[in-house]
Design a protein that fits this description.
One of its GO terms (biological process) is isoprenoid biosynthetic process. GO terms for molecular function: metal ion binding; terpene synthase activity. The chain is an all-alpha fold. The chain has 2 domains: 161 residues, Orthogonal Bundle (Farnesyl Diphosphate Synthase), CATH 1.10.600.10; 114 residues. The protein has 16 helices and 2 strands. Strand 1 and strand 2 form a beta hairpin. The longest helix is centred in the middle third of the chain and has 27 residues.
């Protein structure tokens, strides 16, 4: 695999999937399901009126939450430019309406929790985590009226999603979401004490906080993998590679808790040197992914899952440029310059 760098001052920009054999594909139900899922999120009023309006217009400047105004702005400014529905429609382009709605609701919830947890301390995030996991494990039990909105959101999300999922997918989603939320607590602790980890220590946490594994479980909503296939070393390795590729694609300049700062801290290099390291490691991982894909025994079940993983990576990569999270509305232009 090779990466094509953009010849401009921002050295972050390199087409990490220049030779990736999957193409961008958008679920044709995107607009219809997005309207329903976005209305569902808005019904909880997780943000104040000004912030919700900014979300609806994807305008993430100059708003605030009703409390902790100065603290919430940074996290909220990311959330409102996310286009969570687009994420789901690109990542799961072949899903039917019910399962696409499941995915959109879950991606929305990921980012609402992200907005809440990104500005909270370890104790608060752990309390949020306990509420969320209790709601996922008991989706038909009413939540307390005075509880954080995350509890009822999680309960409704999973109560609606469960009937669209295979038993294995239901079990695996709750298990992987538990790991994810536990790691978010660790990330909050690091943030509060301004801990900068070395590369391997950072990756050990980020492999969980990046949230890839719950998303890959969603590929099994309709057709679950047989346990013998799911536990095959080649499948496990493909999932591990996908997690690390996603980290490298995602973590090139959002916050102190990212791979670039870990590399700079450990190797004593600058941003340009750190990004060269990221690019080289990403290329190594991509080549390994394609090598495994070529040699793994491909039943129809395996072929469908591996295609889903490869497409998921491509879809989320495209979303990075098409949403407003990373490039302040200039993502599509930058992507064209890399091509």
């Amino acid at each position: 695999m090779t990466s094509k760098s953009v010849s401009q001052e921002d050295s972050r920009l390199a087409d990490l999937l220049a030779d990736w054999p999957w193409s961008r594909s958008l679920n044709p139900l995107y607009e219809e399901v997005k309207a329903e899922s976005s209305a569902w999120v808005a019904s909880f009023k997780p943000f104040n009126a000004k912030a919700q309006d900014a979300f609806d217009r994807c305008d993430f400047g100059g708003f605030f939450f009703p409390s902790r105004r100065n603290l919430w702005w940074a996290a909220a400014s990311l959330f409102f430019a996310l286009y969570p529905g687009l994420f789901a429609a690109l990542a799961y382009p072949n899903f039917d309406k019910a399962r696409l709605r499941t995915c959109m609701d879950i991606i929305h919830f990921f980012f609402v929790f992200d907005a809440y947890s990104d500005v909270a301390d370890e104790v608060t995030v752990n309390a949020q985590r306990e509420i969320i996991m209790d709601a996922l494990r008991h989706p038909h039990t009413p939540r307390p009226d005075d509880e954080c909105v995350l509890g009822e959101m999680a309960r409704q999300m999973w109560a609606r999603a469960s009937p669209t999922a295979t038993p294995r997918a239901q079990k695996r989603f709750v298990e992987t979401f538990d790991v994810y939320t536990a790691a978010v607590v660790t990330e909050a602790k690091d943030r509060c004490i301004q801990n900068i980890r070395n590369i391997e220590s950072y990756l050990s946490v980020r492999r969980c906080t990046v949230g890839v594994m719950p998303c890959l479980v969603l590929l099994e909503l309709k057709d679950a993998l047989d346990e013998s296939i799911a536990e095959h070393p080649a499948i496990i390795r493909l999932e591990e590679i996908t997690v690390d590729m996603m980290i490298l694609e995602n973590d090139t300049g959002l916050a102190a808790h990212n791979i670039v700062n870990a590399i700079i801290h450990e190797k004593g290099t600058d941003v340009h040197g750190a990004l060269q390291w990221v690019e080289q490691y990403h290329d190594t991982l991509a080549r390994e992914f394609l090598e495994i894909q070529q040699h793994i025994p491909l039943s129809e079940e395996v072929e469908q899952y591996v295609w889903g993983i490869g497409n998921w990576l491509k879809g989320v990569y495209c979303w990075h440029f098409e949403s407003g999270r990373y490039f302040r509305g200039a993502g599509l232009q930058l992507y064209q310059e890399m091509s």
